[in-house]
Amino acid sequence: MFPMTPWVKRLLIANVVVTVVAWYVPGPYVLLVLYPPAVLVRPWTLVTYMFLHAGWLHLLFNMLFLFFFGPRLESRLGSKGFLGLYFVSGVGGGLLSAIFAPGAQVVGASGAILGVLIGFARYWPRERIYIYGILPVEAWMLVAFYVVASLVPIFNASAGGNIAYFAHLGGLAFGFVFLRVWEWRKGAARRAFQKKLTPDASPKGFGGDRLALMRWKGISVADLHELNRGEVLRLLDKAERGGPASLTQPERDFLDRMSRR
Fold first, then answer.
1. How many angstroms separate the CA atoms of 27 and 21, rounded?
2. Alpha-carbon distance 98 to 35, whole Å?
3. What is the percent of the chain with per-residue pLDDT over 90, rounded to a whole number?
4. Which residues on neighbouring strands pair with residue 137, listed in sequence order?
5. Across 28-118, where does the E strand assignment appear?
6. How does DSSP classify residue 40?
C-alpha cells in the first residue's frame, strides 16, 4: 500500500468531521448543501457540498476510494496538482448537476473522487484493483464502468434513486480535462526550460540555415583540439553536401558552440 500523503489525510479528516457535524448539529447542513436554485446566493456550496454525505455507506465508500487511490496520485502530481484535480472535479460535478438536475440537492465527494479515479487510471491504466478484495479489475475498466453506470440512468427515464449521476459525469469529465491541461502546461514549462538551456540555437528555415552555414564556415579549425577539429570538419562537409537541414539539433548546437569560441 502506498504511504499516506499530507493532503489525502487532510481531506479524509475534513470529510469525516464536516459530515458528522452536519448530521448532529442543526444548521450547517442547510448552509453547506448544494441546492441549485440558491447557488447564486450561496456560491460556496459548490465546494462545501463535497464534504457532506447522505449516510455512513456513502461516506465510507468515498473515503475508501480516496484512501486507496489518492496517495499515489498526490505523489505523482504533487500537492498543488492533486488538490487542483480534486476540487476542479468536485466543482465540475456540482456545476453539471446544477445545470441538468436543477431541482435536486447534491451532497457527497463522489465527483471529486471520480476525478481522482480517472487520474489514477490515466497514469496506471493496467493496475489491478480487487473489488471486495476478490474480483480483479484493471483501473481503466473501473473508470469505464462508472461512465456507463452514470450514463445509463440518465437516458432511462424509469431509473430513479438519489444518486447524483450528473455529478459523477461532471467529476469524470472535468477531471479528464484538468489532467490534459495540467500535462500541457507542464510540457510547456519543460520546453521553455530546455529552450533557455540553448538560447542561441541556430534558427531553422531558408534564411536561418544560410546564416548558420556562413557562421560555421568561419570557425577557426586550426585553433581547435584535434577531436573537435575532426568533428567540425565532418559536420561542415555534411552540411555542405546535404544542407544545414541535414544536421540534427545536437550537431547544430555543437557547431554553434564551436563558432562562439
1. 10
2. 8
3. 46
4. 129
5. none
6. T
Query: Among all residues, which ones are annotated catalytic?
Result: 110, 168
Cα distances (angstroms) measured from residue 54 to each of 20, 49, 50, 235: 10, 11, 11, 71
Q: Which grid coordinates belong to 179?
A: 489532467
SS3 for 90-132 is HHHHHHHHHHHCCCCCECCCHHHHHHHHHHHHHHCCCCEEEEC
Q: In this structure, what DSSP letter does residue 239 have?
A: H
CATH superfamily of the domain spanning 6-195:
Rhomboid-like (1.20.1540.10)
**pLDDT per residue as tens digits for the range 83-115:** 999 999 999 999 999 999 898 899 999 999 999
**What are the structural domain ranges in the chain?**
6-195, 206-259
The DSSP element (H or E) to which 185 belongs, if any, is helix 165-197
The model's pLDDT over 20-69, given as tens digits with 9 standing for 90+, comes to: 999 999 888 999 999 999 999 999 999 999 999 999 999 999 999 999 99
Per the CB < 8 A criterion, the answer to whether 175 and 114 are in contact is yes
SS3 (DSSP) at 54:
coil
